[in-house]
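Journal club prep — side note

Before the paper discussion, L.F. wants everyone to see what a predicted structure for a comparable chain looks like in token form. Sequence:
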Amino acid sequence: MCAKGGYSTGKYFGTDGFRGEAGVKLTAEHAYKIGRILGDLFGRRRGVKCRAVIGKDTRLSSYMLEYALAAGLTASGADAYIMHVTTTPSVSYVARCDGFDLGIMISASHNPFTDNGVKIMNGQGEKIEDGVLAVIEDYLDGKFSVPFACGAEVGRTVDYVSGRNRYIGHIISLSTCSYKGLRIGIDAANGSAWQIAKSLFDALGAKTYCLGVSPDGTNVNDGVGSTHIEKLVKLVKENSLDLGFAFDGDADRCICVDGRGEVVTGDEELFVLANYLKERGELNGNKIVCTKMSNGGLIKSLEKCGVSVEISDVGDKNVCDLMSSSGAVLGGERSGHIILSKYETTGDGLLTAVMIMEAVIESKRTLTELLKEYKALPQITLSIHVADKKAVSAAVADMAEKIQRSMGVRLVVRCSGTEEVIRIMAEGESYETCVAACGRISEIIKEV
């Protein structure tokens, strides 16, 4: 099952954890206090020894936050198991399968290296419940204190790299095909998947060509990864590869490049996987979940294939909520955050890549051929950095509605859940109309 609920209006925690500039908005003191309150909530207050597993991405500040979290947890009597550099979905998997009380991932996903974040998961590997986040925020604001552990009650840290290895084995086990003879491009974004992705595809027999596998603490997402797909496109074309897969900083997203060098977004991935699961009789109710930012062509194309689509608000937590309530086993976002609830409780870029490979190999068709029946509508997306995203969004809401009606486009203007950014999406009958609509909204935003 997917996680239910999410905290999107807190002082510290947004839609994807506590995220911001490391050392400024998110400090080592914050991390220490988060560890302190989590150790208390999941340990002393329950009368048990709390066990927490921690993973991190390759950012320079991830080490600082990792040690601060571990110090806070052990000071409150909890044991901290350290997975070191690993992916968000691997922390989720290990938390769920190895009986941990909670999992913590240190990452700012696709953001630049100067940012970082703390994502908290429960013992099922799902995003932590709203009530727990509310208590954490109260503690961060100094509204109450928690006691220190002493004597034999003090916690310890445990090296747990074995958990990461077990996760790799789990993903490998999900493949029923050999990739021998296939040439695959990998862009690991100099992030969490920089070792894992190549190990995975090598183990399955593919010949791999890699980008973004030289992290130095400051180059995560720097011109590479799922948000900078152009380098993978070039790699695929120049080496005549069969497929390419690009991940983000914590590898919970995946964007593909087909053998022609064409970019395959999360919408196209959902189309391929929906049909693959339907053919196997594994698409419960023959329906999937996508967000309002997904291309309208996805809905129309899937309907022709006998698959219905339910639409959620943007954000993986909203996708998960609707999947849980509707019984759908597949959902995702255009950004490449794909959730396959049969296997995971969160989005997993590596799992997405493996399932795409399975669909290609079992069908004996190329990814291009699997997308032959997919017809996208003209769509433009734009991101604008602002000082106060909520105020700007509220100010332009009415005007956006008027532009949508007058220009005959579908227009979505929303605040990013992870950055001080307003995102604009326009979809219509022509690219020219979409560009014009985005231009009008951007002008209004600049005026505001």
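L.F.'s comment for the group: Confidence is low (pLDDT under 50) at residues 1-8. Keep this in mind when we get to the figures.
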